[in-house]
Structure formats: C-alpha cells, structure tokens
Amino acid sequence: MTFLHSDAENIRSSENLPVTVHSGAGEASVLIAEEIAALIKQKEKSNDHCVLGLPTGSTPVGVYDELVRMYNEEGLSFRNVVTFNLDEYYPMQPHKLQSYVRFMREHLLDQVDLKPGNINIPDGTIPVEEVPEFCRKYEEKVNKPILKLTNRDYNDNGMGNLVATKGSAYDINIRVFNQIQHTITGWPGGKPNADDSDRPERSEPFPKRVIIFSPHPDDDVISMGGTFIRLVDQGHDVHVGYQTSGNIAVFDEDVIRFSDFVREFESDFFGDSTVSEGLHKELVEFLGKKRPGQVDAADDEREFWQRAEDRNRETAQLFDKLGMAEYEAIEAFVRYIP
What pLDDT band is residue 5 in, cutting at 50, 70 and 90? Predict the structure, then answer.
C-alpha cells in the first residue's frame, strides 16, 4: 500500500503515540533494524551492555534477517548484547519444531556473535513445580520497578531528555506511577452516579456504546479479556471491530508446524497417530495445491467473519441450552462461580 505524505500526516495527527507510516513491511523492518544497530553501537562505545527484548512470530523475522545481514556484511557485532525472550511453550524441548528457542536460534541467536551467557529464554523443560520460582527470578532479571529507576537508567536507555526537561528521576517516577495508578479501575466504562474526577473514564453517559478494535480475531480476548467481560457485565453496548478479515490469520507454515506437533503428541502419549497422520497428509496436499489468496475452507465460499459468526451463533445456542450466558462474538466468556 502506498501512502501520500498528507495521508501519513492525517494518520499521525490522531495518534497519542509516535507513528511512522511506511510503504511496506520490508522498509519498516530495515528501519527498525537500523535503529537497533545504532543502539548496539552506542552502547558499545560507552562499554555498556545493550539489552534487547525479543518477540517471536512472523512480524519480527524481517528485522532479524536485516540484523543478520548487517552482521555478515557490515561487521555489526552483538558481543555486548543481552537478550530476553518474552515467552516459550510449556512443556517444550528446545529442539522441537514448535519451540521458540529453536525459532530464535534459527532466525538470529546462532547467526551472530552473541555470547551464550547473554541469551535468556524461558525454560520449557523444568519440572512443573519449579515453574513459579523460575518465572519470579526471570522477572527479576528483566524488570526494574518504576520507583527505583535512577537518572543513569534514563540516560542509558535514550531518555536523558526527560531528566533534562521534566526533573529528576525520582520526580518522573512518582509522576508516572501516579498516572498509571489512575488508569486502574474496576469500572472501565465509567461508574454511574460516582465522582469521576479521579477516574480514567467519565461516569456519564451510562450505558455507553463501546467499540473495541482488535488487530486479529482473539487479540481482544488475549489482551483485554477482563476489561471486555466487565464492560458487558456492567451493561454497556459492546462491539468488536476486527481489523483483518482472517483469511491470512494463520500462516500455512504454522498450520503444518502445529499439525506436526499434534502428530508427535498423539504418537508419544497415545501410541497411535493414525488419525493425526491422515489429517497431516490431507493438510500438506491441500496447502500444496492452494492458490494465492484462496480461502482455506475448500468447499466454503463464505468470508472468515461470516463463518466465525455462524459458528459462534451455534456455540452460543449450545451454551444457552446449558444455562450459560449467550455471546455472539468471536469468543465465548463463561465465568465459573463455585
């Protein structure tokens, strides 16, 4: 998609966060990689570590490819880089196709000169009883509480201008902490007949019509499911606007990857993978013949949202028969009350 300059300006004018519009994912990936490379070099000059939080999935692959290219062709070194990955499946062996350890090693970690001791990824092999303590220690390695940030923390992370213009780290920390506190509420749509001077949302009008914009079907539930159900329970008219049709919600390679996982799981735990083997073969054959842009449901010409709507209407009717609340949305919310 190509944007005119005026289009980009109009988009940025309505955003609270800095937004840059690019002609495509490739261009954006290169610019992000260049920004990361500049930070690595800056930290190297001051003899400091450069700490990076790394995601997985298809979105950052272009960035990782460009960083690897810079390492191979431009001499960019990662010797001073410390990495933290955000997540890992559990339980999961690191060599498995579905493991994020394997994903990161194939796309970045094993392709550059990162020190093994500087790589941090959640461990999917530890005993289940050790998981809480592992997660607690992992959080301690990653995070530093807002109230404990120092002037040096701001300067070392490219935010020295905040200290110069807004005051000391202590003053900034208190201000940010108080602002975050004021965003926390059990009434996301506003509490009727209440003093709303210190609340993030006004009390009137009530009820409100709420529109939730979700990049992909299920992102709304994953990222704000608690807020979603409170808005519904508190009587608001809630709608969801999905920003993709869903026709490429799952990449073909991911379908094969998870199909392979099911096949291994069935074989390891049940000793017979006949059903999953047949499904895997059928998927591989279908995807091998599929045309670009073709809907995955071979004999179903409905758009994704139409299929999802029909499926969830049937699910809602089933829940209704079971005495559960009825929601005609992408997800059904069921609250367990003992």
Answer: very low
